[in-house]
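Operator note (shift B, R.M.): manual run for Nucleoid-associated protein GCM10007383_08810 requested after the automated queue skipped it. Running by hand, logging everything below so the morning shift can see what happened. Input copied straight from the record, untouched. If output looks odd, do not overwrite the archive copy; leave it for review.
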Amino acid sequence: MFGDMMGMLGKLKETQEKVQQTKERLNTVIIDEQSPDGLLKVSITANRTIKSIEVNDSLLEDKEQLEDYLILTLNKAIEKATTINENELAAVAKDGMPNIPGMDAFLK
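Run finished. Output pasted below as returned.
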């Protein structure tokens, strides 16, 4: 029993390291998103850090349209980044979990 406990603790530490490595890797995964007409472009990491925003000069003349575009485009990019982030981290966590009957229900 004690050996099983030590094995599980080792597996937990290994999983924590893999999660940390995955988080670091997700800093290099870039999601590019743009407004439907291409006048606004944003790039963010899968960890939801904004890397760049490109605004076409024509949008600078219409503050309300620029604000709307920023909200819509950033939200779309954040949604995609969140999906990637959650899927990647869930896969690492699930891989590191001990095989306990019924545990799959909690990971869905």
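Quick read of the result: Residues 2-97 form a domain with the Ybab; Chain: A; fold (CATH 3.30.1310.10). The chain has a mean pLDDT of 86.
Leaving this for review. - R.M.
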